[in-house]
Write a structure and sequence with these properties.
Low-confidence stretches: 145-177
Largest sheet: 5 strands, parallel
Strand order of the largest sheet: 3-2-1-4-5
Order of helices and strands: EHEHEHEHEHHEHEH
Helix content: 40-55%
Structural class: alpha/beta
Mean pLDDT: 77
Number of helices: 8
Number of domains: 2
CATH class of the largest domain: Alpha Beta
Shape: globular
Number of strands: 7
CATH architecture of the largest domain: 3-Layer(aba) Sandwich
Radius of gyration: 19 Å
C-alpha cells in the first residue's frame, strides 16, 4: 500500500462526506473533494494546499463524473480510495412519485455511484490496490411508510436504497472471493478484513475458501457466520454491532 493515498469523496459540502474529507486531509493524505457546487468545497484547497483538489461532481450529470475522475488522475496519478457518499431521500408513496424526481433519485443514489466504480475499477486492479466504500441507507433494510422510492415499505418492494444495497452486496461478493491464490493475496498488503456470510448463501463455499486463503496469506481476518440465513447482508442478521466493534478496534490499533 502506498504511504500517501488519494481519496475521491462525493458529497463533501456537508455531513459525512465533509467529515471524511477533513479526517483524510488532517492525516496527510490527498483528497479529491467533490460537490455539485464546487464553491462549497473550495476552502479545502486553501486550507490544505497541494493535498486537496476541489472538483464539481453532480450525479445527475454523468459528464461531471468522468471529468472528476480525469482531474483526480491528472493531479495525483491515481485514485486509491473511493467514497461513494453523495445521496438523498425522497418523500412520496409509490403512486405519488413524480417521474423526474424519481429518475433523479435513482441517478444520484444508484446509477451515479455505479458509474464511478466502473471508471475506477480497472485502474485499481492494474495497480493491485483499491478501496471502495459505498454509503447507503438503513432505510434499505428497515421498512418505513411514505418513502416508497427511497426505502421499501409493506407495499412498495423496490427502492433506490434497496437497489444500492443490492448492488453493494453483489459487488462485494464478486470481488471478495475473486481469488484463493495465497501468494497473490500475500503480495497485496491487504488491510484487516471482515467476512460476514450466511450458511444458505449460494456463494458460501467461495466465501469460506477466500477467507481461508486470506488467513493463510497473513491477512487479519474476522469471521461472522449467520446460521440459516441466505446471505450475510441485512439489518436483521445481527452483524452490525459485531462489525462496529471490530471496526472500532481496527481503527484504535492502527
Amino acid at each position: 500500500m502506498k504511504q500517501t493515498r488519494t481519496w475521491l469523496i462525493t458529497g463533501c459540502s456537508t455531513g459525512i462526506g465533509r467529515g471524511i474529507a477533513e479526517a483524510v486531509l488532517q492525516k496527510g493524505e490527498n483528497a479529491v473533494v467533490t460537490a455539485r457546487d464546487k464553491s462549497r468545497v473550495k476552502n479545502f484547497e486553501e486550507r490544505y494546499p497541494g493535498k486537496a483538489l476541489a472538483v464539481t461532481l453532480d450525479m445527475e450529470r454523468p459528464e461531471t463524473i468522468a471529468q472528476a475522475v480525469e482531474q483526480a488522475q491528472e493531479r495525483f496519478g491515481s485514485v486509491d480510495v473511493l467514497i461513494n457518499n453523495a445521496g438523498h431521500g425522497y418523500r412520496a408513496a409509490l403512486e405519488e412519485g413524480e417521474p423526474a424526481a424519481v429518475a433523479e433519485l435513482f441517478q444520484t443514489n444508484f446509477f451515479g455511484p455505479v458509474e464511478l466504480m466502473k471508471r475506477l475499477l480497472s485502474a485499481m486492479r492494474e495497480q493491485k490496490y483499491g478501496v471502495i466504500v459505498n454509503v447507503s441507507s438503513i432505510g434499505a433494510v428497515t421498512p418505513g411508510l411514505g418513502s416508497g422510492y427511497y426505502q421499501p415499505d409493506s407495499l412498495d418492494e423496490v427502492s433506490a436504497g434497496a437497489a444500492a444495497c443490492g448492488m453493494i452486496y453483489s459487488f462485494y461478493g464478486r470481488l471478495s472471493f475473486g481469488t484463493t491464490d495465497v501468494e497473490l493475496l500475500r503480495s497485496g498488503e491487504l488491510p484487516p478484513t471482515f467476512y460476514c456470510y450466511g450458511t444458505r448463501d449460494p456463494f458460501y463455499d467461495q466465501f469460506l475458501a477466500n477467507a481461508d486463503a486470506a488467513e493463510e496469506a497473513g491477512v487479519s481476518v474476522e469471521r461472522l457466520q449467520l446460521d440459516g440465513m441466505p446471505h450475510g447482508f441485512g439489518a436483521s442478521g445481527g452483524w452490525i454491532p459485531a462489525y462496529d466493534q471490530w471496526l472500532s478496534e481496527v481503527f484504535a490499533n492502527n
